Amino acid sequence: MPITGEFNTNSDALEKRIISHEKFGSADINEWIFINLEITPALSILDLGCGTGKQTIPMSELVGNNGEILSVDISQESLDTLSIKANQLNMQDRITFLCGGLDDIHNHLIENSYDRVLSSFSLYYSQNPREVIKTIYNSLKPGGVFFFCGPSKDNNAELKNFHNKIKGFDNSSLSGGALFMEETGQELTKEIFGSIDIFHFENTLKFDSQEALYNYWSSYNLYDRGIESDFISEAKKHFEQNTVFETTKRVLGIKAKK
Fold first, then answer.
1. pTM attached to this predicted model
2. Which tens digits make up the pLDDT trace of 130-153?
3. How distant, in Å, are the alpha carbons of 93, 170, 221, 240 from that of 231?
4. What count of other Cβ atoms lies within 10 Å of the Cβ of residue 170?
5. Where do the structural domains in the chain lie, given as residue ranges?
6. 11-153+173-203+250-257, what's its fold?
7. Cα 249 to Cα 205: distance, rounded to the nearest angstrom
8. What DSSP line would sit under 111-180, residue for residue?
9. DSSP strand E in 4-88: where?
């Protein structure tokens, strides 16, 4: 089953989360991603689920004038935002845009075409991930690298506990992206590529106000309109007794080579 949520393809919500991670966090996920993806100049890169370009733009800087990136996303709105950024930075010649879902990429990719394939917080949206991973494998050149990442089982545990306490239930079972990253995604990639390497990343977010915490929660698929007023009330109480609210982004990365 595909993983769906209110903010999966909402570019405004995505931008708000990116800003929160950068403003209130202390670790750079892009640095971690690019090291594991082994980016060097002049590479050809496929960026699946590129969103508004958090990885696309800096990757285009790293590959230089002789490199190229195909950025794929299901949201035309997100691609339009990325296109504006690319034009402002004079990088439009290095980036090609494709609007479409992950399950359609087999209709657009040529075998042995890419040095690297990245899927950051997106692969688990596929309805048929086995076929998508097979397509990724076929699209890579010999020796090419595939790296995908997403939430680990303990991702944002502190915020989830805060949310669940307000909602009045405890849901500790694996589901959604975390289930895919911890189990299905690893199994399928190992089956198709033969072997995988697993990496971990953490970024602790320290929100300094009720408004900052609310803005992050309300841009996240955890958001629930039914408890919005209670969340605001509990957030206010928290900051009456504390100066910060801490929650940690815990990310799992899977790397495979052809």
1. 0.90
2. 999 999 999 999 999 999 999 999
3. 45, 16, 15, 14
4. 10
5. 11-153+173-203+250-257
6. Rossmann fold (3.40.50)
7. 7
8. TT-EEEEEEES-GGG-S-HHHHHHHHHHHEEEEEEEEEEEE-TTTTHHHHHHHHHHHT----S--HHHHI
9. 44-48, 68-73
